Amino acid sequence: MTGLDGLTAGWEVWNEEDGKIVLVYRPDVFDGGAFPAACLPTIYLTRGRRRRRPGTNPRSRPGEQWYVSLFLEPEVERDAETRDDRAGAITTAKDLADRFARGALDYRSLYQVPREDYLDQLDELTGRSE
């Protein structure tokens, strides 16, 4: 048991490694049809800061914190939360996933240039428009 059981409906474990876990929201919907694939909501749990460039993330060092980051698009992200251990990061990620899926997370505020039509559709998907 990895501690990832009981994820809120719609969220899936996309990848799990020693120092990184990736959760995605509704990959069945974010497939380029109704919702752009590049907008797939993704939560990263990483030991040490997540680096964007391949090859720049050497094995994490003992004592490094875990970072929990939500990305709505490649350039649209929520500030990461940090936890001291993997279990704490998983708990934080599960809470974040739950709030997102229930529409209780204000993701609109993360956009510097709002995409109203897209965000209205996302509100419907997450129940935020109710």
Description:
With 130 residues, the chain is α+β, with helices and mostly antiparallel strands. It is built from 2 helices and 6 strands, in the order ββββββαα. Strands 1, 2, 3, 4, 5 and 6 form a 6-stranded antiparallel β-sheet that branches. The longest helix is centred in the C-terminal third of the chain and has 16 residues, at 86-101. The radius of gyration is 15 Å and the shape is globular. Residues 52-58 have low confidence and may be disordered.
How much β-strand is present in the residues? 15-25%
State the major sheet: 6 strands, antiparallel
Low-confidence stretches: 52-58
Class by alpha and beta content: alpha+beta
Summary tags:
alpha+beta, 24% strand, 6-stranded antiparallel β-sheet, 130 residues
Brief sketch in words of this structure:
By secondary structure, the chain is of the alpha+beta class. It has helices at about 85-100, 115-125; strands at about 10-15, 20-25, 40-45, 65-75, 75, 80-85. Strands 1, 2, 3, 4, 5 and 6 form a six-stranded antiparallel β-sheet that branches.
Helix/strand layout:
Blueprint: E1 11-16, E2 20-25, E3 42-47, E4 66-73, E5 76-77, E6 81-83, H1 86-101, H2 116-126
